[in-house]
Amino acid sequence: MNDTVRVTIWNEYRHEREDERYAAVYPMGIHGAIAEGLAAFPELATTAATLDEPEHGLTEERLAATDVLIWWGHKAHAEVADAVIDRVYRRVLDGMGLIVLHSGHFSKIFKRLMGTSCDLKWRVGADGERLWVVAPGHPIVEGIGEFIQLEAEEMYGEHFDVPPPEQLVFVSWFDGGEVFRSGCCYTRGAGKIFYFRPGHESFPTFHNPKIRRVIGNAAKWAAPTSGPRRTFGRSEPVGPAAT
Ligand code: ZN
Fold first, then answer.
1. DSSP string, 168-215
2. CB of 72 within 8 A of CB of 48?
């Protein structure tokens, strides 16, 4: 099996094109900043796809050649075609990793995979955020200290309406006093999913070295393994267990 992990960064890419305040923070787009961060990981081969490309850049061929899909979306979730979501959903169940960032909590794909509303409290102010590592030793926090400190971020607060994570990796605390489960691991079918909270479009979060490290670690963690392919349906005997 090839050791290279093929990562596709999917970005809605509207805020940065339509509002110069966000373009100033992300002149290459949010996907460009994430790709720049992942360039520090030699085992990751990164490309990008955006909403306004044909089929949102997520054709069957493209997804078949994607080991891990990273998803940032916000104001145009409803514009993502259901046929493309069906395709991404099938690929996740078949083993493709998925990393959902920040406002992607309301994306069609995340809501479908979670089966809940994925709603939460929020406030765009000037809250500082401290993301505490609550799963030391987990591969996603390799190279991260006890916590990540962000000077200013959008607040997301509990309750976060998601199923209980199979592994909780980060808990955030905000200046306003709220807490949030900000790093959540799931499996669906053969696919691994990581939800990571920070990354509002007006803040330089995706330039932060520790945030970049977490996303790169998560891409490696979520990559499919070369285990057996899943098979379903009527099945013939494979022979007795005893020899
Ligand atoms: Zn936001």
1. EEEEEEETTS-EEEEEEEEEETTEEEEEE----TTS-GGG-HHHHHHH
2. no
Ligand 1 centroid–CA 6 distance in Å is: 27
Q: Give the distance (Å) from ligand 1 centre to CA of residue 232.
A: 40
Q: Tell me the whole-structure pTM to 2 decimals.
A: 0.97
How far apart (Å, rounded) are the C-alpha atoms in residues 146 and 27? 31
190, exposed or middle or buried, with CB in 10 Å at 0-12, 13-18, 19+? Answer: middle
CA dihedral 15, 184, 3, 61 (to 10 degrees): -50
Q: Quickly list H helices, 39-145.
A: 60-64, 82-93, 108-114
Q: Domain ranges for the chain, please list them.
A: 5-115+183-222
* CATH architecture for the domain at 5-115+183-222: 3-Layer(aba) Sandwich (3.40)
- For ligand 1, the distance from its centroid to the CA atom of residue 208, given in whole angstroms, is 16
Give tens-digit pLDDT for 180-196.
999 999 999 999 999 99
Amino acid at 83: A
